[in-house]
Amino acid sequence: MDRMKTFGIYALCVILFFIFSNVMINIAIKASYAPIDTYTTLKEGIDIGINESRATYVNGYVGGVIKNAGETINKAYIKIDLYSNRDVRLGTKYVEINNLQNQESRDFRMGFKFTDVEYAKIELVDKVEENATQDSFISDNLGGIALLTAVTFLIFFG
Q1: Which CATH number goes with the domain that contains 47?
Q2: pLDDT score for 135
């Protein structure tokens, strides 16, 4: 019985350490992101509010809310251009907006992997450019899967 109690205490310690280390890692990662400037070009009746725009040296994210105060938007794109401190465009990302009714708002968030991003320009456009650099951005769908795979690998092989 004492052996099971000791094993339970060890298991509890490992679980608590795992939770503590994940919380501390998340705090450290969030602290390493610095704010970047964002500039929006608005169309009449459309409001794009930026809640967060942060970047490290190698990656970052931009998130916000788009609100429609005019006619229904059937299909449009939020275009984000990322620039370096020398005003060199590093890449462009598009987020599709479908069926945004009058007085409706939607959240959006875009992750990117570019080095030394200084600021972002955001606007609403009707179509995607042919030479957009979509492949350099982090897919929102793969972020959680990659993290889960890495944690699973470390648990079993670490």
Answers
A1: 2.60.40
A2: 47
